[in-house]
Amino acid sequence: MFKDEMRQTPNKPxxxxxxxxxxxxxxxxxxxxxxxxxxxxASQMAASMVExxxxxxxxxxxxxxxxxxIMASRPNERYPDAPLMEPLVVVNPQIVLRSLQLEKGExxxxxxxxxxxxxxxxxxxxxxYQNLAGxxxxxxxxxxxxxxxxxxFDHLQGITLLERSQMPEQKLMAQExxxxx
Length: 181
Prior knowledge:
Layout: H1 2-8, H2 36-51, E1 56-58, E2 68-71, E3 88-98, E4 102-109, E5 112-122, E6 124-130, E7 136-142, H3 143-156, H4 161-166, H5 168-176
Antiparallel strand pairs: 1-2, 2-3, 3-6, 4-5, 6-7
């Protein structure tokens, strides 16, 4: 049913799931078919992200169980200081390495509308993912771009920003005011 709906409405924004919806608690499933349906989903996700003024969006946020997200950092009213990057479709992502250097930053989430959270995350990560053609890519990401990747990766693990903000390490770092070495 979901595939049929996408074929009928390419590039049409999809409804965004909000905290409390079951899809946001589920672990995403590996993408195995790199076909037009996947490309259409990515296109619709991008349209949803742009319409909502986001810098990233994960498939579970548009009610799809697939391990897929899009990052497209650009300055906008939600993130006026965001660096500009070309949209990047990330399929079946893995975080291979996380730096010990942590940094805190304000994050919002399209699935937790109207709220911002201070979140500590590794400043640099090394990642591996597939593109829309199924080819494996490797990248080292830093700063805000690394933050977007980790935020969207959380969605694929069934973790929303609300849950991330309540994790013990986040509370400890907030109390201390700095990461523990």
